[in-house]
Amino acid sequence: MTIRAMALVLAALVAAGCTSNAATTAPGDPRTLTVSATDTACRVSAATAPAGTLTFSVTNDGSKVTEFYVLASDGLRVVAEIENIGPGIRRDLVLSAPAGSYITACKPGMVGDGIRTPFTVTDTGQSVGPTGDDAALVATATSQYASYVRDQTDQLLTATRTFAELYVAGKDDEARALYPVARAHWERIEPVAESFGDLDPKMDAREADLEAGEEWTGWHRIEKDLWPQRATSYTPLTAAERKTYADDLVANTTVLYDRTRTITFTADALGNGAKSLLDEVATGKVTGEEEYWSRTDLYDVQANVDGARIAWQALQPLLQRKDAALDKELQTRFAELQTLLDSHKAGTGFVTYDTLSPAQVKALSDTVNALSEPLSKMTAAVLL
Amino acid sequence: MTQGVSRRGLLGAAGAGAVAAVGVAGAMVASRTEQGASTARTVPFHGAHQAGIVTAAQDRMHFAAFDVNPSTTRAELVALLKDWTVAAARMTQGEGAGPLGPLSGPYDAPPDDTGEAIGLDPGNLTITVGFGPSLFTRYGLADRRPEALAPLPLFPGDALVEAASNGDLCVQACSDDPQVAVHAIRNLTRIAFGRASLRWSQLGFGRTSSTTSSQVTPRNLFGFKDGTNSLRAEQTAEIDAHVWVQAGADPKATWLEGGSYLVARKIAMHAETWDRSSMREQERIVGRTKAEGSPLSGGGEFATPDFALPGRGGAPVIDPHSHLALANPQHNDGVRMLRRGYNYVDGSTSLGRLAAGLFFVAFVTDPRTHYIPMQTKLAANDLMSEYLQHIGSGLWAVPPGAREGEFLGQALFA
Lengths: 384, 414
Known about the structure:
The complex is a heterodimer. Chain A folds into two domains: 19-122, Sandwich (Immunoglobulin-like); 134-383, CATH 1.20.1420.20. Helix content of chain A is 49%, strand content 17%. Chain A is built from twelve helices and twelve strands. The longest helix of chain A is centred in the middle third of the chain and has 35 residues, at 134-168. In chain B, strands 1, 2, 3, 4, 5, 6, 7, 8 and 9 form a nine-stranded antiparallel β-sheet that branches. Chain B has helices at residues 7-14, 16-20, 24-29, 74-92, 178-192, 236-242, 271-275, 279-286, 323-327, 367-370, 372-381, 410-413; strands at 60-68, 126-131, 169-175, 196-207, 260-269, 338-339, 342-348, 354-364, 388-398. In chain B, strand 7 (342-348) and strand 8 form a beta hairpin. Chain B has two domains: 1-40, no CATH class; 41-413, no CATH class. Chain B is of the alpha+beta class. Chain B has twelve helices and nine strands.
């Protein structure tokens, strides 16, 4: 849609650890610790804590940007971390810690091994949740998702080429039939496509997104030419113009294809990407703004939901271990939304947006909300 | 309790039940003995500049845009501005809109004040009037239209609704009591009937900026401090440079000297999707911490942001596309704005979402240098745009203040 969301995903790629800024210092709570990080010291308010969900409230009392780590006893494996804490800023690191020996570390200036101190988490007899090797599950999840992205861009390129040929050849009925089907491959991986900030405005801009004097290209430019009914005094594109826009779309899709061959992901990129996909549904598609000319918004909704479901399913083994109740809720909510979408099917596709009654649009919006809210909690749950 | 014979003192006592409902403001009325008595919180109306600009931002706003009726003559327009000036001067001092007030006059006549402000403290009511570009196409004003008073361009992503945009005239009424602000607009609207009609209006609450150094920075509906960098009344040299129209600024519009330009933007916020974003994402988009409002480069709310400060991987700690980075004076040729916006909630939408956002108001010396370039950048690149939609817009030239015996805009019609 716009170039903005993408930068978020790129940021997500480098993000790690689970941080929050909640002001939560319950006085006397042994699981809530404070850390004063200066340029030369890393003072943790206690050297031990009972097993469970620990909160390190880290204040940068120094003059350099700092980081705070909880490391395994080998001093190598990062259990949890927060980065980019500017001078004077406080940020919470929340983690689920079973009993064992750890090392805390501040890294003023973000260089070197940091200022390290042993830290002990004591056994309380209480279960702190599973302790298996999350890293393997994360690796499986992220590689599965990367395969999915490669496959979707592959199919997108093929479908876009066919679509472009039909459009250039003036086979408008066939082009119109293929339009929402080809775009589904884009919509399924939309946050990834958007993460390439130079491609998204060229391929998926809506007319209203343009700056004055900026040329409108991409899917929606062609969409308007194929479905000009809602336009006032529209001048159809010439054959030469059709070819220009179609070639441009194929060229940009090829760039997207090339760039996604070697793409990699982190667990939080999957979680945040799923959240972004549902945001797309809520802000652009439920309101019928995305496919203004063709009214094929429901195809996009289905594709966005598909993409979110794949991300969740990839993370599912990890999520079931971390927060089985959340996983169960997502299962229910995805199923509800799919049932509702199925009720709007027509043949192999969907009815057009304009045939939905206001009550049906409201029901769709409500069902999307019901899924979006728990889905927004998935990233933190798998990282904790 | 001391009771006076004035309308307000009387009603302060008699209307105790109703007064209780307005809380603190109502309580203050009990000790008032005369209209505009010393306990009333009032802001002087007359002066070199209009009130409601560098005045400490009140808690509530009712903003209204009017169109001058097609049949209205120049003389009638001037008469309207005179009538508004008189009524505004009265209401801001805690008096009724008309000379008789809400409770006096012939029994068979409607009162010349609508009455809902009876017994209420004015709450620092200010009434600020501006002239829109469309006004200058009439009344022989074309050659007095300031060059800078052209309709704002359409920015990328704008989804402007005519019913919340533009207007020949605007009136900004601000008070700490919402009912006082509404009372002001309602009575000015009534006075205008037959000469100008209400085009649209907007209620605002929870001021989103501070205009004096003693005010803490309030929060917008994203939960972040808003307007940290806004100009404060005490910064008089900067106010002169960035807010007031200077002598010689525009030879066609000397009448505007000592005035300002008011930019209004109704910015809908997608509260639901914002609320689902992680704290990491929220702070990255804003470029500040949610707790203190400190730039992510550190140092506390009022620290100068360090946009070059590298974080992990060498990338700047403050994202170059964060709202802070794009809107900061460092990246906008040093221009500053005096912001006076308010949060709004217009109930909810048909989809069960909050119809909520920010009613952005800024006073600037020239929108061509102090608003349009910055908004052009924000609209194209701001990470926050994903959660915003600009749905209303307007630009007005705000004439200088009226001195005793003058009316607002007198120099324009001289």
